[in-house]
Design brief:
Oligomer: single chain
Shape: globular
Number of strands: 16
Number of helices: 6
Strand order of the largest sheet: 5-14-13-8-9
Mean pLDDT: 88
Order of helices and strands: HEEEHEEEEHEEHEEEHEEEEH
Structural class: alpha+beta
Strand content: 25-35%
Helix content: 10-25%
Length: about 280
């Protein structure tokens, strides 16, 4: 679940985020998240070709012509783990990623206990995938239906009080690749800014273990799927990915710093070996 605001003693233990530093004058668009005192901006990336995603403190005192040194100026902000920052993008599902679509995202859950450790948004709440599936399954049971065969889009689910929730990809199902489709007028909207986040962990000389160590250190964002219940089928289906904080983050910067999210080692391995990415996992 979403973490509460850390106590002051814990805040002091959070190292301030330091990322590649951009210039406010180079930023091309973005939004202000007023309740977080945060600016989410898009500008030329400092780590990859094209655009990047930047974060910094927003202090509206300056906008009103006030003195930034006066009492009330925002000097630091703490953003708890699991806080939504922006949408990734709206889009559609297809059988495979487009050739030039290096921002596609796979809707695929695999591995032991994956449902218990995967965060999702369901009913506007951050919860585990397991809790979301239990919620819908219990609604089914109340209607006299205990079938789990079509409980989750593109997956086979087994669920019971004894064994919990287990998930496997449905090998007969193909359309699990989310293709971003952002209209020109929406390119800097709150629903679409996440698509500009680059992976700050990639190093062509690093192996898989080193990549994940770099990602743990450098990438402070993660993708979380927003799920909904299809009223016709009763199935849990994905709508679009949302970008959230991976951990408690402390910002002291009023200049934009580039932030990143993990694309996955397989993503970069495909880029190196095949010359093209597959999808972000």
């Amino acid at each position: 679940s979403i973490q509460n605001q850390p106590l002051q003693s814990a805040v002091d233990d959070i190292e301030p985020y330091v990322g590649p530093v951009g210039s406010m004058g180079d930023m091309e668009g973005g939004i202000v998240v007023g309740e977080l005192a945060l600016q989410v901006l898009v500008g030329p990336s400092l780590v990859a070709p094209g655009k990047g995603l930047f974060l910094c403190i927003y202090d509206d005192i300056d906008d009103d012509g006030g003195d930034s040194e006066e009492i009330g100026a925002v000097e630091e902000i703490i953003i708890p783990q699991g806080t939504p920052i922006c949408g990734y993008a709206r889009g559609y599902f297809a059988d495979e990623a487009e050739e030039d679509g290096d921002k596609s995202v796979g809707f695929l859950f695999a591995g032991e206990n994956v449902a218990d450790v995967t965060a999702v948004f369901y009913n506007k709440q951050l919860m585990t995938l397991s809790d979301a599936l239990w919620t819908v399954y219990q609604e089914r049971c109340e209607e006299g239906n205990t079938d789990t065969s079509n409980l989750l889009f593109g997956h086979c689910v087994q669920i019971s009080n004894e064994t919990g929730v287990s998930i496997q990809a449905d090998t007969d199902f193909m359309s699990r690749i989310f293709i971003p489709d952002v209209k020109e007028e929406d390119k800097f909207s709150p629903t679409s800014l996440g698509i500009y986040a680059n992976d700050l962990a990639f190093d062509p000389d690093s192996n898989e273990e080193q990549y994940f160590e770099n990602s743990e250190r450098n990438n402070i964002l993660q993708l979380v799927w927003r799920l909904a219940k299809d009223e016709k089928t009763g199935m849990v289906v994905p709508t679009w990915p949302v970008v959230v904080t991976k951990q408690d983050i402390r910002f002291l910067n009023t200049v934009p710093m580039e932030v990143g999210l993990q694309y996955g080692f397989n993503y970069w391995n495909a880029v190196i070996t095949e010359g093209a990415s597959k999808y972000i996992k």
